[in-house]
Amino acid sequence: MGADLSVTFTGLRFQNPFLLSSAPPTESESNIMRAFDAGWGGVVTKTIGLHPVTNVAGPKTKFLRTDPVTTRMSMQKRPGTALHSSWNWELISDKTIDWWLPRIARVKQAHPDRILVASIMAGSGSDKELRHWQDLAAGCQDAGADAFELNLSCPHMDRQDMGSNVGKDAGLISVVTKVVKEVAKVPVWCKLTPSTTDIAAEARASFAAGADAIVSSNTFPSLPPIDPATLEFEVNVDGYVSSGGLGGPAILPLSLAKMSQMTQAFPDKSFSGIGGITDFSEALSFFLLGCGTIQVCTAAMLDHAIGPNVIKALNQGLAEFLEANAERGWTSVEDFRGLRRDRVVTHSKIRRPEGKEYFGGQDAPEGYADVEASLSATRSVTRSS
Ligand SMILES: Cc1cc2nc3c(=O)[nH]c(=O)nc-3n(C[C@H](O)[C@H](O)[C@H](O)COP(=O)(O)O)c2cc1C
């Protein structure tokens, strides 16, 4: 009997916990159909909005590679280099909601047992904009979407009331999530920006407003490197560049840190982990921190656009991991989810070499500040009196 890879996440049953994240791999009906045929448990559509979208007049995504000898990082194609990251300044889907709705319906008819999450985005600066969230949500759920992912994290929006600018503002997160929850008949996931100081604060606002799950990370704000020969940014239009988003292997440790802040603060809530995942070992790190599902973008883009080999390796890796740990009684992701969540502690809780003490960067406590010494002094006074 094969291993049971299925998971239940925000009340939805997934054949396996691996989803294509909202990005080019999920920008069309044919890609999504191919993704399901390849074995992905779910997809999150490329973000759908109501405002007109026009992308830059040049490449929207490029890949950074490092040279193993010099470690130089560049987008130029060089033999023997390894993938470092993706860099993109692509906007949300340039297709209209009317284009998307019949396609969502057709995908769900063809694959009723797979999970299709509609990523949606609108503004938040007026009642009219907030109604756009509700219109998007109502349309997508009527077409058959199984859940919503609210894009509160796109890093390249000029508008102050959209994308990661919403994700940086607990008040706006709350307003937008509540507005969608008012009309939603399916689970609502909030995809938060990683570019805040303490992402647990934004997670708190999302959950308080009724979010069923948090998704993280979107790409990290960044610039492409400057070519030393031409002195031009490696991606530019007419010499100009704007802040874009970094994804892929480089962001795995950063994304794990963000995820850990949230899963520790909300151990009983649902989280979907993204950031630099290519194979099962990386997905496992997110599961061990407490994530119930995993999403992939960059690795899939580089593997026949929708990641047929990536999903095969993820499913196989999970099956082999369950088999290798069968003697522990593990039969599903639930059995090891969150197992290392509490291993992230403050620095002073980390053991020092024998005999060496550390007081969190402060001077050693003396007198009344030495709590242990004053307690034992009090105890001996009490005993002798
Ligand atoms: C070209 C490109 C386009 C993207 N578009 C979206 C989008 O429309 N909505 C969204 O929520 N995230 C978008 N993302 C972010 C990805 O879904 C994902 O969060 C990010 O790339 C990190 O995952 P990775 O390390 O597997 O690439 C995009 C990423 C890339 C590279």
List keywords for this structure.
385 residues, alpha/beta, TIM Barrel, eight-stranded parallel β-barrel, binds flavin mononucleotide
What is the succession of H and E elements? Answer: EEEHEEEEHEHEHHEHEEEHEHEHHH
| Helical proportion, percent range | 25-40%
Number of domains: 2
- Widest sheet, order of strands: 3-4-8-9-10-11-14-15
Low-confidence segments, given as residue ranges, are none
Query: Number of helix segments?
Result: 11
Q: Classify the fold: give the CATH topology of the largest domain.
A: TIM Barrel
Query: For the residues shown, what is the average pLDDT?
Result: 95
Q: What's the name of the CATH homologous superfamily of the largest domain?
A: Aldolase class I
Bound molecules: flavin mononucleotide
Reading off the top of the CATH hierarchy, the class of the largest domain is best stated as Alpha Beta
Proportion of β residues? 15-25%
Shape: globular
Strands, total number: 15
**Gyration radius over CA:** 23 Å
